[in-house]
Design a protein that fits this description.
Shape of chain A: globular
Distance between the termini of chain B: 54 Å
Shape of chain B: elongated
CATH class of the largest domain in chain B: Alpha Beta
Order of helices and strands of chain B: HHHEHEHEHHEHEHEEEHEHHHHHH
Strand content of chain A: 5-15%
Radius of gyration of chain B: 24 Å
Structural class of chain A: alpha/beta
CATH topology of the largest domain in chain B: Rossmann fold
CATH class of the largest domain in chain A: Alpha Beta
Strand content of chain B: 5-15%
Structural class of chain B: alpha/beta
Oligomer: heterodimer
Radius of gyration of chain A: 26 Å
Largest sheet of chain B: 5 strands, parallel
CATH architecture of the largest domain in chain A: 3-Layer(aba) Sandwich
């Protein structure tokens, strides 16, 4: 790192010498960051100005760290931040910049989303659904009118009552565009509830249990002022298990994924579930799907997962899920639902190995495979056959009715006897940690 | 929280931590090696002052950073290990009811009178880390470490931040306790869930990268004085090479320290495949990983690490 490498001479695209007033520099840089798509709040600019006041940016590296510490709030934002920083503060300052920035010094257009954000109407491959010029691919037919989206919540209840049998039974792959829209609203409204487990928290109970709650007893006695107080006991509260949904959005699942993603969205907003999609890579979508407006949520989700409708790498995505999220606690004691047809160009042994790892963390694994609905279906696809021994339930989820079965499987009362606590598993985690 | 409203750090703290370079040097003196990024982050946390959220792989020294900071400021560290279901009684304060009951019984026996104010006096208060950090008398602010905040419930997260923003807590029986020296707050997270926007908005953020072999070796040398000569560097090279494998639990810095300590106890001066295989238990803690490494062989790990 060149110690005497003042950034004054290698200047920026915005023509701002570093000696410029901290406030102006902060405001300009925060604006650039926001334009690039990094969420920042207005008070960050003020904070950055203060920080620059405390740490005068004598070196570019120092400026880099100051800006990054103040403006970045998650690791995922670092590459984008680096690109913007390099673009704004000059690519020819390579020696003074930390390696990562130097490498990113070629100005990257903010948030390129090749597959999901149509560049120009003519450039998309032929055959995509009409009406996708505003919305990315998932928010395809039926949802494009924003008026419909706003109505969605209200309509879900009505639709639940009025939707005809046809819609309930039909496979998602056979539905027309309008019907898909209808079913997606229904799917988003499904109530998902996981089994209960004992939580660390207690509640007071008058019935005798193992542990006397001295504090509650004393408090009660203080209130009533009697000498012979009512003994109160602590009872462990029950809590719903975590719910994690992993949805395959590869090309072979496309007809179903458009409905499943609505289900994911409903689960995230309604049941506090964690949602991921995968095809060639894994993308966590909980945040994007947490919006109340389903169309907007799906649009954001599509932008965040650029590998939509490409190939599948189930084992690799499962491995990444377990390594980066599952082991850290997200999957411990949770109900994990995988939506996939099991098609993947991978070694089935790898799928089995990753499923075994997931098995050791999760409370239940439910596999949803729409192809199961076909009468002649046999789980012979390599990945599927390898994964099946590790699943507690295997459901089709190809129609609305089948999705209702899925909710039963998630609750834990739909499992066949003997399958529910099937394999020898480690001790049940009483609390996730 | 505007720029004008913020008072900045106290005079004494400002004198101890005048700039990033001196903070880095001071951290170095406490045997904590920080790079420019982490030093900048900690400097801003101390001087703005503002809570800072540290993230990074397990074992990169998130908790150690808080300890080192407390040590160089010569101030106590209050650590709150978060877990699911943690509540105010475990984090902030609780009345010691058993002792209160005992106090009443004693008063009866001695035939003295107890009033309610006697029973809700400070000596019956069980102080938990948050309250301890707020009550810290100075002369410098305490360091408050909220470890693994992501494990606590979202409501607890909100409660904690409300309290820290106010730097005051009201105990109904005692009144309001206001911090004379608001603590320096360091949070760590393992990212098991997304933290609330309100929290990330109020915090500085730093992701601690995994260090390169030279830095690992330097850290190991400082922590394990017995690791003389090439041992630390060799071990660091092995650990770094191990991390290029696709392990479920890649060894961290703490594993490197454990391993070199183990080697030092065994009287090993130079790492060879044989001794590596005998001491796997210090660095690889997962059966799948052991199989994977076994297939590559200890010789592959050790070769070329001499010197």
């Amino acid at each position: 790192m060149a110690k005497d490498h003042g950034p004054a001479q290698n200047n920026s695209a915005t023509d701002r010498p570093p000696r410029v007033e901290a406030a102006a520099l902060s405001a300009a840089f925060v604006t650039a960051i926001r334009r690039a798509g990094l969420a920042t709040s207005p008070d960050r600019a003020a904070r950055l100005a203060e920080a620059l006041h405390l740490i005068p940016p004598a070196q570019l590296e120092q400026l880099y760290w100051t800006c990054r510490v103040v403006l970045v709030s998650a690791r995922e934002q670092v590459p984008l931040f680096d690109a913007v920083f390099a673009a704004v503060f000059g690519a020819n300052a390579g020696t003074a910049l930390p390696d990562r920035v130097a490498r990113a010094a070629v100005p990257v257009p903010p948030a390129p989303q090749p597959r999901t954000r149509p560049a120009a109407p003519g450039t998309r491959e032929a055959g995509t659904a009409p009406g996708t010029d505003q919305h990315p691919r998932v928010a395809s037919p039926g949802q494009d009118s924003s008026a419909q989206g706003r109505r969605a919540d209200r309509d879900a209840v009505l639709a639940m009552v009025s939707a005809d049998e046809h819609l309930h039974e039909a496979s998602f792959a056979e539905l027309s565009a309008d019907e898909v829209g209808e079913v997606r609203r229904l799917a988003a409204a499904l109530q998902l509830a996981t089994p209960l487990r004992l939580s660390r928290r207690t509640r007071t109970s008058a019935h005798s249990t193992a542990s006397l709650d001295v504090r509650a007893t004393v408090r009660a006695a203080r209130r009533s002022g009697t000498d012979a107080p009512l003994l109160l006991y602590a009872r462990r509260r029950e809590q719903r298990r975590k719910l994690v949904l992993l949805c395959d959005v590869s090309g072979s699942m496309e007809a179903y994924a458009r409905v499943f993603v609505s289900l994911l969205q409903g689960a995230v907003t309604g049941a506090g579930a964690e949602a991921f999609v995968f095809s060639t890579r894994l993308t966590r979508l909980t945040r994007q799907l947490a919006l109340r407006d389903p169309d907007q949520a799906l649009a954001r989700a599509a932008v965040s997962a650029p590998d939509w409708a490409s190939g599948t790498r189930i084992a690799e995505c499962l491995r990444r899920f377990v390594d980066e999220h599952g082991r850290r606690g997200l999957a411990r004691g949770a109900v994990v639902v995988v939506f996939s047809d099991g098609w993947a160009y991978e070694d089935p042994d790898q799928v089995a190995a990753q499923m075994a790892r997931l098995r050791r963390l999760a409370h239940r694994i439910i596999w949803v495979n729409p192809r199961k609905a076909a009468p002649q279906y046999q789980p012979l696809v390599g990945g599927m056959a390898a994964a099946l021994p590790y699943c507690d339930a295997f459901v089709s989820g190809h129609s609305y009715r089948a999705l209702v079965e899925l909710t039963a499987a998630i609750r834990g009362d739909g499992a066949q006897p003997g399958q529910r606590h099937g394999r020898a598993r480690g001790k049940e985690p009483a609390h996730a940690n | 929280m505007t720029a004008a409203a913020r008072a900045g750090a106290e005079e004494d703290v400002r004198r101890r931590v005048p700039d990033v370079g001196s903070l880095m040097a001071a951290l170095d003196r406490t045997n904590y090696l920080a790079d420019a990024g982490l030093a900048t982050a900690l400097f801003l946390a101390v001087r703005l002052p503002q809570p800072i959220l540290l993230e990074g792989e397990a074992g990169v020294g998130k908790t150690e950073a808080a300890k080192a900071l407390a040590e160089l400021l010569d101030t106590p560290l209050y650590r709150l290990q978060c877990y699911e279901g943690i509540d105010a009684g475990e984090a902030l304060y609780e009345w010691n009811h058993q002792r209160q009951l005992l106090g009443i019984r004693l008063a009866e026996v001695r035939d003295t009178e107890v009033t309610e104010t006697d029973l809700f006096a400070p000596q019956y208060l069980l102080r938990r880390p948050l309250l301890q950090a707020l009550e810290h008398p100075g002369p410098r602010p305490a360091v408050l470490l909220l470890d693994e905040i992501d494990r606590a419930d979202a409501e607890f997260e909100a409660f904690t931040f409300e309290l820290l923003a106010e730097s005051a807590v009201t105990i109904p029986e005692l009144g309001t306790i206001r911090a004379t020296h608001p603590p320096i707050v360091i949070l760590t997270s393992n990212r098991t869930r997304d933290l609330h926007d309100a929290l990330t908005r109020r915090c500085l953020y730093h992701w601690i990268d995994y260090p390169g072999p030279a830095r690992i070796a330097e850290i190991v040398r400082r922590r394990v004085p017995a690791s003389s000569g090439p041992l630390a560097l060799q071990a660091a090279a092995v650990i770094t090479r191990l991390r290029t494998l696709d392990l479920a639990k890649p060894p961290g810095i703490s594993e490197a320290i454990d391993w070199v300590s183990a080697l030092a106890v065994l009287g090993v001066a130079r790492i060879d495949p044989g001794i590596t295989e005998q001491t796997w238990g210090s660095i690889v803690k997962n059966r799948d990983d052991l199989e994977l490494i076994g297939s590559r062989g200890a010789a592959w790990l050790v070769e070329g690490t001499d010197g």
